[in-house]
Specification:
About 35% of the residues lie in helices and about 25% in strands. By secondary structure, the protein is an alpha+beta fold. A hairpin with a 2-residue loop joins β11 (about 280-285) and β12 (about 290-295). It catalyses: Cleavage of a beta-linked Asp residue from the N-terminus of a polypeptide; L-asparagine + H2O = L-aspartate + NH4(+).
């Protein structure tokens, strides 16, 4: 099997001054994951490390750069899933952790549970030796400005919910195993303790070697109502291509509950798709040593992976 990785940096409104940073961020993430795959690494390692790259990039709503809750704090969710045995780990409402996706993998591999939240997740992190970082280290000037603006009496936080920035990755490795990973800071000015779709298996992501893998982004409550990730794989089980399955599921979410979002999908044969019902979604993929990436509908850039690595200094 030829390895393939696909990543997204979130569906929603991407403002002009942030486009270059988002393109660079997703391409770096895709190249990082592909490098692991090309050297015989697992799909699980590839999606984890690709998401780490984006968690550490302030252009995205995950890790450093996460939006703030109603108290002005960062609370993050993440999930990872192994398509080989359906093992999954997730965390929700975690604070002071630089890379929630790494903690999610520890939940998968070091506990008998699938999802740990809030104080329980923090205690587990300390027990596993995961270093804490000061909460302010995860807060960017942009996130703080948006939070303050949403506190104003005449503000409308919903206008900022279109700029979501959740990150995710899906991959297939040379052994034919698939995996997915998704990480987010959630909705700006959300209630303390709110858990969205990202940490919920079947909503924020799903991976099954028998079908493929997907990672989702968009309005979390809408995604949960239709269990978007699993719905996509259901359509693939019925014979649809990754692109058609993604379009059908996104159309269902928009029609049934008025929700918008985006998805990346990979099949167990290595076919892939990146689709969104929002204005934009940053995405990138590497297959056959060729990097492809874009943001706007119809935008498609192609570059040899080695050339891209040199130009980005990866």
């Amino acid at each position: 099997m030829k390895p393939v990785i696909v990543v997204h940096g979130g569906a929603g409104r991407i403002f002009k001054d942030r486009e270059d940073g988002c393109r660079s961020g997703v391409t770096r993430a895709a190249l990082k994951g592909y490098g692991i795959l090309k050297h015989g690494g697992s799909a699980l390692d590839a999606v984890e490390e690709a998401v780490v790259v984006m968690e550490e990039d302030p252009h995205f709503n995950a890790g450093c750069g996460s939006v703030l809750n109603e108290k002005g704090e960062v609370e993050m969710d993440a999930i990872i899933m192994d398509g080989k045995n359906l093992a999954s780990g997730a965390v929700s409402a975690v604070k002071c952790i630089a890379n929630p996706i790494k903690l999610a993998r520890l939940v998968m591999e070091k506990t008998d549970h699938m999802l740990l939240t809030d104080q329980g997740a923090s205690a587990f992190a300390r027990g596993m030796g995961v270093p804490e970082v000061p909460g302010e280290k995860l807060i960017t000037g942009r996130s703080l400005e948006r939070w303050k603006k949403n506190l104003e009496a005449d503000s409308n936080p919903q206008q900022f919910q279109k700029d979501l920035g959740t990150v995710g990755a899906v991959a297939i490795d040379s052994a034919g195993n698939v995996a997915c990973a998704t990480s987010t800071g959630g909705l700006t000015n959300k209630r303390v303790g709110r858990v969205g779709d990202t940490a919920c298996i079947g909503s924020g992501g799903y991976a099954d070697n028998n079908v493929g893998a997907t990672s989702t982004t968009g309005h979390g409550e809408s995604i949960m109502k239709v269990v978007l990730a699993r719905l996509i794989l259901y359509h693939m089980e019925q014979g649809k291509s990754p692109g058609d399955a993604a379009d059908s599921a996104l159309d269902c979410m928009k029609t049934r509950v008025g929700g918008l979002g985006g998805v990346i999908v990979i099949s167990n044969s290595g076919d892939w798709a990146a689709r969104c019902s929002t204005q934009e979604m940053s995405w990138a993929t590497v297959k056959d040593d060729q990097l492809h990436y874009g943001i706007h509908a119809g935008e498609w850039h192609t570059q040899p992976a080695e050339e891209a690595i040199s130009s980005l200094g990866c």
